[in-house]
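From the shared-data thread, chain only:
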Amino acid sequence: MKGNDLTPAIMSVLLLLGIVVFAFVRHWRIAIEERTLFGVEGYSDFAKGRKRLFPGIW
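Structure, as tokens:
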């Protein structure tokens, strides 16, 4: 076995870390977008009739 091979455990940790970073960035981006959009006149009325990313939760 070569010394620079990634073991399955390291690969799993890197994959999990990637998923966590992706979820954090996505949440951060959506929060900024919604903050901006709610500043637009009429958007809050529009948003009331629309489903959310996770209906009933967010």
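Helices lie at 8-37, 43-48.
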